[in-house]
């Protein structure tokens, strides 16, 4: 009896010592499964998206064959917003800008190892979403420069079934959640875009020389993609933009010249989980407007926006 | 005895099993009894842990629930006739009705952050008025409104709170940046559909 007790005690102690790391590893492998699931399963389903001031329902058809992923997304209420994406490239979209295809190659695959440097990962438990058993993974920031995520993954396939974005005060910023999901082969007909889905517009490449404004400070862990310079419309000066990501959160920095009919001041705006912070930049060759837009805490965006310096290569 | 009954009602409420009178009783008592409110809060935290749902500890749901109930027609029933009987068609019907009210109220309580949230207010230019958060006011007016259901009434002023009135060009620009950022994020092949949904929600405005 005594031996038995001692035996349990030893195991319990071992479990205590091992479990935090094991849990994190477990969570990391779940996130890896989530990344892999996209190219491994075919499904159709319906999901909801909710944020401050907006609630919408959507349908999705997703086909994975030989590593080629084709996906059709259709908003089920209001305007029939539609989006068809094949092999990482948007084929058509019913967006007002019908913007050009951004370089998808600049997206680095989500590196789970790096991610755990900035977020603590933990498996919280099991529940049910859209009638599928789900494993809940919490992704909590280690600083106050990013938001927390709660990811509900299909316990069998790893597919993301539900995602909550939470700020540092524990307020829910947005909810994505499947309400219906069926794993099945998807017929071609279901991936055909409707009439509302328009071919993408032409890229208006900006050729103008611009001073290379870059943020002098970035939250640790964020790295930038290539800088893209293009005009939003034919008669406008070019806007330079650059996307930064830490593997979970993402923000874009826009810089463009101001002018007499292009007046702006310092500004901070918030749309659901997305913050936008504008700063006026004075330089010898004119006044520019730098705007940080992304799903990051306003304080972080403010700090990035306050750090702009001309011609200085940003940290990282 | 009274507190035992209250505790039982509170448990029933937490299980979505409370009838209308029980909900009113708990609300009324919680109004005057900090201890009961504390218990309620602990139950909510416990439940959120059990359900693995995120819970914001600071929100007080009772106000939202009271608001939801205020809009409901009064019951023509004496408390004594209801409390002990825990079965029957009437009770089942009322349970459904109350559960619906509570769900609505909870959604109001867990309202998404918006411009009215004090700590996120812009901290610049305090001398100019801040654009009023139209969503918050419309929600307050109608008692229980699910976040985002007030689309038509708030569509005009919903998106942006600014520290000072921006120029028309700048305002238009911010909208454009938001779209560009969202669409750009959505175009990356991502394991998540969230960026797409975000873009669609901006598109829908």
UniProtKB/TrEMBL annotation, chain A:
The keyword Signal applies. It comes from Halopseudomonas sabulinigri. The gene is mucB. It comes from the Bacteria. Pfam families: MucB_RseB, MucB_RseB_C. It is found in: Periplasm. The keyword Signal applies. Keywords: Periplasm, Signal. Residues 208-308 form the MucB/RseB C-terminal domain. Residues 26-193 form the MucB/RseB N-terminal domain. Belongs to the RseB family. Residues 1-24 form the signal peptide. This is Sigma factor AlgU regulator MucB. InterPro entries: MucB/RseB_C, MucB/RseB_C_sf, MucB/RseB_N, MucB_RseB. Its main location: periplasm.
């Amino acid at each position: 009896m005594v031996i038995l007790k001692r035996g349990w005690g030893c195991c319990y102690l071992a479990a205590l010592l091992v479990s935090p790391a094991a849990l994190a590893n477990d969570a990391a492998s779940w996130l890896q499964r989530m990344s892999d699931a996209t190219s491994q399963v075919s499904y159709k389903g319906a999901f909801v998206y909710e944020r401050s001031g907006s609630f919408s329902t959507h349908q999705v058809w997703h086909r994975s064959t030989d590593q080629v992923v084709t996906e059709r997304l259709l908003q089920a209420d209001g305007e029939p917003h539609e989006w068809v994406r094949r092999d990482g490239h948007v084929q058509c979209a019913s967006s007002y800008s019908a913007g050009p295809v951004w370089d998808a190659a600049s997206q680095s695959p989500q590196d789970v190892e790096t991610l755990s440097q900035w977020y603590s990962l933990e498996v919280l438990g099991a529940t049910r979403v859209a009638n599928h058993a789900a494993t809940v993974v919490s992704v909590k920031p280690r600083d106050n420069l990013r938001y927390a995520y709660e990811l509900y993954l299909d316990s069998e396939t790893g597919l993301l079934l539900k995602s909550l974005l939470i700020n540092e005060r524990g307020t829910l910023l947005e909810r994505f959640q499947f309400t219906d999901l069926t794993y099945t082969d998807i017929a071609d007909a279901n991936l055909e875009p409707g009439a509302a889905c328009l071919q993408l517009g032409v890229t208006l490449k900006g050729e103008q020389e611009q001073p290379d404004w870059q943020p002098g400070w970035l939250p640790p862990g964020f790295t930038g993609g290539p800088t893209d310079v293009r005009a939003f419309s034919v008669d406008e000066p070019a806007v330079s933009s650059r996307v930064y990501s830490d593997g979970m959160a993402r923000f874009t920095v826009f810089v463009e010249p101001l002018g007499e009919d292009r007046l702006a001041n310092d500004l901070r705006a918030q749309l659901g989980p997305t913050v936008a912070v504008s700063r006026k930049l004075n330089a010898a060759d004119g006044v520019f407007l730098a705007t940080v837009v992304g799903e990051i805490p306003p304080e972080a965006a403010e700090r990035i926006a306050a750090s702009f310096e001309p011609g200085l290569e940003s940290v990282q | 005895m009274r507190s035992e009954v209250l505790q039982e009602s509170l448990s029933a409420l937490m299980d979505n099993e409370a009838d209308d009178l029980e909900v009113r009783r708990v609300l009324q008592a919680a109004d005057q009894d900090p201890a009961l409110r504390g218990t309620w809060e602990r139950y909510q935290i416990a439940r959120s842990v059990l359900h693995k749902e995120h819970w914001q500890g600071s929100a007080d749901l009772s106000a939202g629930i009271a608001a939801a109930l205020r809009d409901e027609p009064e019951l023509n029933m004496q408390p004594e006739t209801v409390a002990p009987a825990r079965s029957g068609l009437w009770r089942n019907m009322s349970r459904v009705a109350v559960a619906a009210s509570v769900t609505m109220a909870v959604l109001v309580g867990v309202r998404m952050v918006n411009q009215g949230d004090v700590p996120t207010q812009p901290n610049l230019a305090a001398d100019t008025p801040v654009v009023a958060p139209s969503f918050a006011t419309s929600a307050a007016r109608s008692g229980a409104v699910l976040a985002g259901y007030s689309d038509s009434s708030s569509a005009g002023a919903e998106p942006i709170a600014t520290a000072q009135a921006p120029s028309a060009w700048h305002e238009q620009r911010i909208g454009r940046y938001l779209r560009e950022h969202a669409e750009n994020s959505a175009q990356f092949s991502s394991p998540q559909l969230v960026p797409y949904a975000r873009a669609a929600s901006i598109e829908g405005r």
